[in-house]
Design brief:
By secondary structure, this protein is of the alpha/beta class. 35% of the residues lie in helices and 25% in strands. It has helices at residues 33-42, 56-59, 62-68, 142-153, 168-178, 183-197, 207-213, 222-231, 239-251, and strands at 3-9, 13-19, 23-27, 45-50, 73-77, 87-89, 94-97, 100-106, 115-119, 122-126, 129-130, 133-134, 160-163, 205-206. The strands form three sheets. Strands 1-2-3-4-5-6 form a six-stranded mixed beta sheet, covered by helices on one side. Strands 7-8-9-10-13-14 form a six-stranded mixed beta sheet. It is globular and about 55 Å long.
Amino acid sequence: MLAIHALPALRDNYIWLLDDGRQAAVVDPGEAAPVFAALAARGLELAAILVTHHHADHQGGIPDLLAAWPEIEVFAPASETIVACTRPLAGGETIRVLATEFEVLAVPGHTRGHLAYYQPGRLFCGDTLFGAGCGRLFEGTPAQMLASLSRLAALPETTLIYCAHEYTEANLRFACAVEPGNQALAERCRRVAELRARGEASVPSTLAEEKASNPFLRCREPEVIAAVRRQDATVDDGETAVFTAIRAWRNDF
């Protein structure tokens, strides 16, 4: 089983380091310095880079890492511009990293070519699904993002969600505005506040936790629909319409 380490980077990013005790892979290296430090501290060599999408805070460290390890593989979306990509992917592939198989999932919405990497029990989802939230729609449509989130929500509920940003507290404040009566949400707020007060990461969460407290995975819930209609009485109760309204509400929250 691979060990997983969160490497804080930039302002609020996480780079995920996968460690087999000898070699490592990193997911979304927005900068190189935290990777170099973690590898040196653990005595590891870098073997691969996995990229979920093209934004600079997810690939900015690749050139410096390749200068040190020029032969490593870089897995990334085929339809996006990724530095030195050696393994272009579209979703549907199975890749092998550190002797471990990962399923590549196409999850457009935040960007058109966004990918997630799934190994049973673990999901590295970039900026698609966050703790108590989801990514902004910079390139995709609400229908695309909803379909992507629905695909992720169909994974086993014990799956650990390794997202790329420490956004959970802010997302929870919005979730409470949507569902003030949600007791699972209230309990999550308490737990996350304690973690952050100790300087600890709020992620990974579990998919079960997200399904119980993340409004973007709860667009069919009566309380969520009612909250949206209090904001805009013209919104119908279709899942895409509710999701679209929640995403717009969150953008301005």
